[in-house]
Amino acid sequence: MRQTFPSLTGLRLIAALAVLVAHCIALIVKLPDPTEAMNLAVTLASLGMSLFFVLSGFVIHSNYSENVSTPAGLWNFFVARFARLFPLYIAFLCFDLLMRVGFHQTNFERLKALPFYLTLTQSWIYFPLDGNALVYQFGLVPQVTWSISTEWFFYLAFPFLCLLMTRLQYPRSIVASIIALCLGTLVIVTLINLKAASLERLGVRAFGEIAANPQDGLCRWLAYFSPYVRIFEFALGCLISALIRVLPDPTPDEQRFGARLLVGALISIIILCYLFSSPTMPGIITSLRVSFGFVPCLATIIFCCARYENSIITALSAPRIVLAGEASYSIYLSHMVVLGAFRYETSTITDAQVWIATVLQSAVAIAATVGLSLVLWSLIEMPARRSLRKWLSVCADGNSEAATLSGARGFDRLPIQESFPRRSIQP
Question: What's the pTM?
């Protein structure tokens, strides 16, 4: 029988809330000098996105690595991922397009970006359009869908990653690969940051002055939005999954060590958030928050949640946390709509009274986002996902109905908590 890791579903909620709180700080919390608040917002958003990508690699490898080697398994993999991403994504894209057209906030020039958004390739290339990068078109909601485009690239690359990992059969070789990937990616990201000025000059010659813009520029796209650097985070999640598979069941002593390791990783995340948000830290350090700076610690947390049992993992596995975690994709896509409805009602914080009002308004906005997400998850996301899998999935002999029936109680539940086999824990 397929079992689940509810604590990883809880981690998905943490990732979604990190992005939600980051954008809440950016849109609702208005300080006279917003520099420190924006540094914290960027750090939290980067933390959330990295957690999403590493979790995705872990879950996808755990669920599908043994299935994509056959044509039917590969087809069902893409059906499952299409059903996971596209229904709610298309619903929000249409919603925002209708809003922009209705309020006369778009033009024909921006509609040139629509084919990229419909095919989920908007983050794959750097292509400035109408004064903004390609990932910043059509309004608030489409501007956060760059990560869905990047995730879609990961899915296309996943079968090839599985081929590369076939020789990793023993813990020692997998751990060596994890260390090499972390060190190699940190070197790549650091080189991109060191060569930022040269990359900007190259971009200006090719695309104009916009390529040197801190938000819409070429360097930010390459280090943060593009799948070509972020795929290392996804690959690390795959390697952590492979390591979990080949390790024997943990002993009681290892369980105690795992609890200490998890606490250490959580403390390290807090320290990194402080360092990456500090304006006094050198740029070569703070720039690591953009991609991969948090990833080794996040991978450690995921490893501990998948392998060990302790009070922290039990808290992440609480039913309400898991339920909200199941709606994390809806939280991610809907939060900009809700925050956008609150942003114009806030005032610049000048005294304690305004602080209290801002905190209350932020809490209501966050609660409203989670509530709306649960409604979207139950009324749109899950019904559409089940229907697409029912219609499109096949089994080995090509019989779609047989595949549906065989997966009705196992495979079809997979995306709800991203299920995968779990090892028993020794008492």
Answer: 0.90
